[in-house]
Design a protein that fits this description.
Blueprint: E1 2-10, E2 24-30, E3 36-45, E4 54-59, E5 76-81, E6 84-87, E7 90-94
Parallel strand pairs: 3-5
Antiparallel strand pairs: 1-2, 1-4, 2-3, 4-5, 6-7
Length: 100
Amino acid sequence: MLVGRVVGTVVATQKEPSLEGLKFLLLKQLDVHGKETGASIVAADAVGAGLGDVVLYATGSSARQTRVTENRPCDGVAMAIVDTLEVNGQVTYDKAGDER
């Protein structure tokens, strides 16, 4: 699993029929301190995440193991919305106190 922030959405009116009904998010990967690493990914949304949310996401074959993405040609999925991220006893992200 990786940590990312939702920075946008992706709309595709023409797509593989098995992708119908999926919402796609544009994520920026984060390091353990909540800083963007520069990497971006498009991920199917399995949890109802929104702009600015910090999420856990998976890529590769693991991305096809949620109820939403099972048997669909997805290479990325947002599968959890992060409430708090703690590293070495220090809270580096807290959704309740996030200013974004």
